[in-house]
Write the structure tokens for this entry.
Amino acid sequence: MGSDWIVDLSPVTGDGSALDPDATSLELMAALTLVLFEASLATWDRHKQAIESAYERGLHHKLTAGRPYDDVAGVVPRDVFDKMNRPNIRLPDEWRTADAPEPGSALRWRKEPGPGYTRRKSGDMIANRYRKSTEILRLTLPRLADDQEFQATYRELLRRGWKDWHVLLALANARFMLRSRRERPTRAEIDDLIQNPALPGVETPDEKPLPRRYLTTECLTHMRRMGFLAGAQLWGLEVHQDTPDLDALERLLGDRYGYWTDDAPHPALFAVAPGG
């Protein structure tokens, strides 16, 4: 998870020999701390603890090679650097085709259970989703049981690895989106959607059914992915990006929080079994 950053550091005057190594390292560390925090899902307290621990292990002395890099770069004078014909330098072909090195162990993608995860806790959370969502969608579910076109979509979603609670989450989010467009949602309703996998409030007979466009594979996939932020928060994680990387969130929740594997016992989702 990440963004493109432009970081403004203190300008270099002269050849860089006047730079204070300690001040330069502190400025660089401050910038790196903010960049890493945005890419992280840890709370600020946990992030701060990790930074302090790294400092205790000598991080401050590992940021530069003795002197600030701008000072070291002075070994090639500016006038010589500017005269180099860099755009026309041809890289050896073997450099272009060389395999990328394996990342260090600390940077490799991790697949062990994430902080706070247990199978029991996951099962309890999913069971709660089933209970709340089936209550909320008490009119939609029987209606869709008799909808052959939707049942074909439902079977396709199951073929793609969806669990029934994924389907319920997508339908509940679709209902919220439809209501948002018909009636301006309150701030509390928006907060509820962020904090909970499904918006509280059971369906009423005067509500119109979900339009067909909300029941396609593509739309339901989008609605399911809307639940990633709430899912992360339920595990004590925080998303710090203004525009969350949903693909990365999906991978994280799947690899470390049982998103694609965990389920809980529940009755048949629809009153009529698919294909029945």
The chain has two domains: 21-93, 119-256. The CA atoms of residues 1 and 268 lie 36 Å apart.
